[in-house]
Automatic annotation (TrEMBL):
Cited Pfam families: RlaP
Record bears the keyword Transit peptide: no
Domain of life of the source: Bacteria
UniProt xrefs under PANTHER family: NUCLEOTIDYLTRANSFERASE (PTHR34817)
Keywords noted in UniProt: Transferase
Example of a GO MF term: transferase activity
UniProt lineage: Bacteria, Pseudomonadati, Pseudomonadota, Gammaproteobacteria, Orbales
The keyword Transferase is assigned to this record: yes
The name this protein goes by in its record: Nucleotidyltransferase domain-containing protein
Length: 251
């Protein structure tokens, strides 16, 4: 699959006349809890030729494709990516730290990731992750939950907890997030991750009482603790400089 993904990225570069500066895995495989039937969620950042940005017509800011078999491809133009970083959007924060990289121009991708730390808005990130966790949790039923959905609650909840306690961008992968938990709870969740690797994502499992208590208490605690945190707003100067330098370096 790795070769297929890389061949597809080269094909997209040629077909759309773009330069893919970074491509990674963004789904459960990168998060650290894949299932046997997990898709490959490939996300990429690309740059148009300079003259496209100087045209009166805006170049395509994103590229989306139907899911082909088990391959899910989606990409953002660098300008759109930088606009989202300015808003402290968690998605580019996650992509740029993915443990699975399919293609990258390290001279661009690594400084871009380092730049993200300067645009971290704890309040916005916490509310974002908390919202995802709450939405997934509210759609669960009774004392059982789909194993995939459980991690759609746990991972963003732990991300919100990380942003609150560490005041920094949350890790993408679940392993470092689990260090926030006591040993007994971490061990229980790791056992579920092992089970998930052999079961269908839709399979229902019973919710462990200790995990249930952690979810419910954490949602309430985080919501109370985030209230006094000040919202941060950012000026675009550094991102403008990065964008211009990147375009010039690629000429």
């Amino acid at each position: 699959m790795q070769n297929r993904i890389q061949e597809k990225l080269i094909e997209l570069e040629q077909q759309y006349n773009i330069n893919i500066i970074f491509a990674c895995e963004s789904g459960s495989r990168a998060w650290g809890f894949p299932s046997p039937n997990s898709d490959y969620d490939v996300r990429f950042i690309y740059v148009h030729p300079l003259d496209k940005y100087l045209s009166i017509d805006n170049p395509a800011s994103h590229l989306t494709f139907p899911i082909d078999d088990e391959l899910d491809l989606h990409g953002w133009d660098l300008k759109k990516t930088l606009q989202l970083i300015r808003k402290s959007n968690t998605t580019p924060f996650e992509w740029l730290q993915s443990p699975i990289i399919y293609q990258q121009n390290a001279a661009i991708a690594e400084p871009l990731w380092q730049l993200c730390a300067e645009f971290f808005n704890a309040r916005g990130n916490i509310f974002h992750y908390l919202g995802i966790a709450k939405s997934a949790w509210q759609s669960s039923e009774g004392q059982q939950i789909g194993v995939k959905k459980l991690f759609y609650v746990l991972r963003p909840l732990l991300c919100a907890k990380w942003c609150l306690e560490k005041q920094q961008i949350a890790p993408m992968a679940i392993a470092p997030l689990l260090t926030l938990l006591p040993d007994n709870l971490r061990n229980k969740i790791n056992k579920i991750i092992e089970q998930k690797a052999t079961m269908a994502e839709s399979q229902l499992i019973a919710i462990d009482p200790e995990i249930l208590l952690f979810i419910e208490q954490s949602m309430n605690d985080i919501l109370q603790q985030v209230a006094p945190i000040t919202e941060r707003h950012f000026k675009p100067a550094k991102l403008d400089q990065f964008f211009i330098k990147t375009l010039m370096d690629l000429q």
